[in-house]
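Q: what sequence does this backbone want?
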């Protein structure tokens, strides 16, 4: 008896295409960017999502990170060839500078650091505290830019992605 294996082989070749697992939608800090909270005085403040990305978002971001990371060095503004390499070393001095600001304990403030940029996220009680935090972060050596994304109080819609609504 003669069997034809071609139909079976064709079926087996098609199975991996239809049964392929989808990339996880789990969000992770793929690039290990510093993300930390410096105060927790306003418990109703929306918690930032931080640098969490899905696998697919991470894949799209990887190319741009490589380009942005080297542009600082190519422009002669960094001594390291990748601006993202500064970030872990900036975390402790940025946290210390922010914690030294009078009144910080009355707000809920988080920090994300990417390519020497400091993103301030969270809630504070006064515009003056917002300005003081921005100045304190800018004063840290090697910080290139501070992006203030703070809000007054906890009632506004946050200007940053949140952990419950990315």
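A:
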């Amino acid at each position: 008896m003669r069997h034809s294996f071609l139909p079976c082989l064709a079926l087996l070749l098609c199975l991996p295409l239809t049964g392929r697992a989808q990339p996880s939608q789990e969000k992770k800090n793929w690039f290990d960017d510093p993300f930390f909270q410096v105060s927790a005085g306003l418990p109703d403040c929306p918690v930032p999502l931080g640098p969490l990305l899905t696998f697919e978002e991470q894949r799209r971001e990887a190319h741009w990170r490589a380009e942005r990371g080297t542009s600082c060095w190519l422009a002669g503004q960094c001594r390291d060839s990748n601006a993202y390499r500064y970030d872990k070393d900036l975390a402790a001095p940025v946290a210390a500078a922010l914690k030294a600001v009078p009144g910080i304990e009355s707000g809920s403030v988080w920090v994300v650091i990417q390519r020497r940029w400091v993103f301030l996220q969270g809630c504070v009680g006064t515009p003056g505290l917002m300005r003081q935090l921005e100045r304190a972060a800018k004063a840290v050596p090697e910080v290139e830019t501070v992006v203030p994304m703070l809000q007054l109080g906890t009632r506004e819609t946050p200007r940053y992605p949140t952990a419950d609504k990315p």
